[in-house]
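Q: Sequence in, structure out?
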Amino acid sequence: MSWNLETKLLHAGDPEPRIQGAVSMPVFQSTMYELEGEAGYHDIRYIRLNNTPNHLALHRKLAALENAEAGLVTASGMAAISTSLLSVLKSGDHLLAQNGLYGGTHTFVTETLPEYGITVDFIDAADPGSWKQKLRTNTRAIYVEAMTNPLLHVADHKGVTAFTREHDLISLIDSTFASPVNFRPIEIGYDLSIHSCTKYLNGHSDIVAGAVMGRAERIRKITHLLNHLGGSLDPHACFLLHRGIKTLSVRMKQHNESALKIAQFLESHPAIAHVNYPGLESHPHHGRARELFSGCGGVISMELKKGLSAANQLISKVQIPIHTVSLGGVETLITRPAATSHSGLTAEDRKRFGIPEGLVRLSVGIESTDDLIEDLKQAM
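A: Exactly. Output:
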């Protein structure tokens, strides 16, 4: 039977028959499992090898959500990103990466990968005509984000997959900001789709986890590397992620609708200089976002006319948003990326990427939209 996404979120990948009739997936808090004539090391059932019943149920569900052949859950989003990149790149290889990546990813590709003899050049992911001049004979992959953090730029994703097919490259995308509800990159030709499950997929601000989906052979290679690196997710965290995923569709509907209304309010407010949200017609990539995405998610960023002092005042005066890092949970969160997610970048890099000190990022939760707007209004 072919299921819609809402049904897959609830039932895809679950064991058949149910384990002892349990409607909710039980937690298998066992380090090891009795041997049954396994063919090789990676077939032995062991938590670090990412193959407990909790892991396997999640792998099947994650794959189903993006219509991929296989999926893999990891200990964090960065574990998924780093292991995926290291599985497709080796010493002497070259990577093309989108300008303005998440700070942790930027640091990994600019500082860690070069230690392994891997070089990187950055591209304007919205300008396919400029990519070929960065191409080298040893270029092996291209890495982009569905929407960048925190400026919400939208890459030419169809251009990326066409370019990688033409030049025999591997395409990787961090699709965290979109979630499988709004965008399924595998369907338009991406090789690997990566998520920080800490955010929307889990949605409840109580675990750190990651995932990667793609063709079975690629996922098998990433799994074997992850087995050696040790980035496996604890079974209880697997259980929490499995539970959180079930409500993804209803949560994303509220995130999408509420964030758009709040972005429209902010854009019209006299204290605001600029709002970044692809759902706004004023966004430079609005047309592309409408073509690719079912919704634009819950993250908004904004610049206030009075700069850093006004940003700090806004953060201190709001009553509902919580001043902290991360995003994608049911609670609305507020932060300055220059002081948190992108603090590891140099001031010069932040300036080059267009991330001023006073930029404020809002991760819209599922509270009343009217209450959030009233709170922002009084704070400004």
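The mean pLDDT is 96.
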